UniProtKB/TrEMBL annotation:
Heme binds at residue 425. InterPro entries: Cyt_P450 (IPR001128), Cyt_P450_CS (IPR017972), Cyt_P450_E_grp-I (IPR002401), Cyt_P450_sf (IPR036396), Cytochrome_P450_monoxygenase (IPR050121). Its cofactor is heme; FMN; FAD. Transmembrane segments: none annotated. It comes from Antrihabitans cavernicola. In the N-terminal section; belongs to the cytochrome P450 family. This is Cytochrome P450. One of its GO terms (molecular function) is monooxygenase activity. Keywords: FAD, Flavoprotein, FMN, Heme, Iron, Metal-binding, Monooxygenase, NADP, Oxidoreductase, Transport.
Length: 477
């Protein structure tokens, strides 16, 4: 029998006082000297290729890029292991790290130890309570109603992702910052809203492959310059919003008024203007792109499922008596079937893609050792389609999965579209309310006619989104 020392690919590790042999993590074929696993991933679709790789390698594997190792997990049980905030913390992978160019104290990109993150987090959290959500509801309704009126006059197929970006950005700006980019009722408020294009350009630059980043100093100079100009323009826009912010007299501050008028309850200090500006940009980008992607996926899936749309309309009839334009704040939470549709959409297409964690100490993950500080990427496509949890039809769209059955409680890590722990999404309730409300209005007003030639292709611009989806809408009235 060979000794432990002669076994290939093994290391010894001490875990919970037991000494055990742990195999080295598997990885993809074709690793290049120096460069590592660059050929294993489609650089334009890293999240989808990581999920694909897990089909051949297994739910846990490593990718190496130069000296850096990244552990990828694709299963619900493994995702469970990285939940604890006392043992794991947020890590910042390439696209999120690059978004620091917009402002380093933004909630998404700042480190948890950064005092600015703590201060902004504490000041903003009350902006997402039920009371605050109640204030955003009429604003959301106004914006969506404007879109419905414009679509009602439009006979051409619509650019779904473009219009969803417009509607969610406008909701974020009006509800969060008392600012309006456009009245969506106007014919000109179509898919080419300049600020949406500006943000998409910045996201495109942030999600460019590492291999292209190497060219920044040479042929990538022009792109870098354009990105700097885009970032400067967005920062100017955020400054304008701050300048235009008026004091809250009604005792119902929006997010911007809250940041301008409230001190950090812990330090009693107000937020610095630069910190406020970083949050405005963070919320404009994080608060619209993800919701827009989810709405776009939902409309794509629903356009092929008239049976589901029919049930959604029956539910709206029951709750509102047949007029969704009167949908009140409390009624949105009662649209339970529609909420299941949204949950299922986010299961199949978790628009954030995934998130990075790192252990605070050397630790065990799925029988392998992960060293303190090493990056672990939780690939949500893999986790949310884990057949051990979701069944052999995990790739199918079935909102019934989310009917609550206490006897079949899933493990906590199995469904995490909004992230984990302390650094999970602060805008979760905002997003769910806005998405359910928007879908209720759209599905009640229009029949969705899919382009039967369209095959779903998913772009990755930091977040996931259907590419080139167009759809014809038929007014039901
Ligand atoms: C369907 C829509 C959304 C999804 C799927 C989503 C998902 C996520 C995820 C996974 C994270 C954690 C990222 C990480 O760990 O690196 C996150 C963080 C965050 N999200 Fe969302 N999000 C959505 C909508 C929103 C909205 C509407 C807002 C604002 C109103 C928002 C604001 C934020 C912020 C500020 C953070 C950073 C929180 C922190 O670390 O302090 N998100 N989101």
């Amino acid at each position: 029998m060979p000794s432990k020392m002669s076994l290939p690919c093994t290391t010894l590790t001490e875990i919970e006082g037991r000494c055990r042999v742990v195999s080295e993590l598997p990885g993809p074929w074709g690793r290049l000297p120096m460069l590592g696993d660059v050929l294993a991933l489609n650089p334009r679709k890293p999240v989808q290729s990581m999920a694909k790789l897990s089909e051949s390698i297994g739910p846990i594997y490593e990718l190496r890029f130069g000296p850096k190792r990244m552990v990828i997990i694709n299963g619900a049980e493994l995702a469970d292991t990285v939940q604890s905030d006392s043992q794991w913390e947020k890590a910042f992978g390439p696209p999120i790290r690059r978004l620091r160019m917009l402002g380093s104290s933004g909630l998404i990109v700042a480190s948890t130890n950064d005092p600015q993150w703590g201060a902004a987090h504490r000041v903003l959290m009350p902006g997402f309570t039920r009371e605050s959500m109640r204030l955003y509801h009429p604003v959301m309704t106004d914006v969506v109603s404007e879109l419905i009126r414009r679509w009602g006059r439009c006979s051409d197929p619509i650019d779904v992702a473009g219009d969803m970006n417009t509607v969610t950005l406008e909701i974020m700006a009006r509800a969060g910052f008392g600012y309006s980019f456009a009245n969506l009722d106007e014919p000109s408020a179509g898919t080419n809203m300049p600020v949406v294009n500006l943000m998409l350009d910045v996201l495109r630059y942030a999600s460019r492959p590492v291999s292209i980043e190497l060219l920044d100093a040479t042929i990538g100079r022009a792109a870098r310059r354009r990105n700097q100009l885009n970032v400067a323009e967005l920062q100017r826009l955020a400054e304008d919003m701050i300048d235009e912010c008026r004091p809250d007299v009604a005792g119902a501050p929006d997010l911007l008024q809250r940041m301008m008028e409230t001190s950090d309850p812990e330090t009693r200090q107000p937020l610095a203007r630069s910190v406020v500006r970083d949050q405005v940009l963070t919320f404009l980008i994080a608060g619209h792109e993800t919701s827009a992607g989810t709405l776009t996926f939902a409309l794509h899936l629903l356009s092929h499922r008239p049976d589901v749309v029919k049930r959604v309309r029956q539910e709206i009839d029951t709750i509102t008596g047949g007029d969704p334009t009167t949908l009140a704040y409390e009624q949105v939470a009662k649209l339970r079937y529609l909420r299941r549709v949204v949950d299922e959409t986010l299961r199949l297409w978790p628009v954030a893609g995934g998130f990075f964690r790192r252990p605070k100490q050397d630790t065990e993950l799925g029988g392998y050792t992960v060293r303190r500080g090493e990056w672990v990427y939780v690939n949500l496509i893999g986790v949310h389609r884990d057949k051990h949890i979701w069944g052999s039809d995990a790739d199918q769209f079935d909102p019934e999965r989310f009917v609550r059955d206490p006897s079949q409680e899933r493990q906590p890590g199995a469904y995490k579209p909004f992230g984990i722990g302390l650094r999970s999404c602060i805008g979760r309730q905002f997003a769910l309310h806005e998405i359910v409300l928007t879908l209720a209005h759209i599905l009640y007003a229009f029949d969705l006619e899919p382009d039967l030639k369209y095959r779903l292709a998913v772009d990755e611009l930091v977040t996931l989104k259907p590419a080139g989806l167009r759809m014809r809408l038929r007014s039901r009235s």
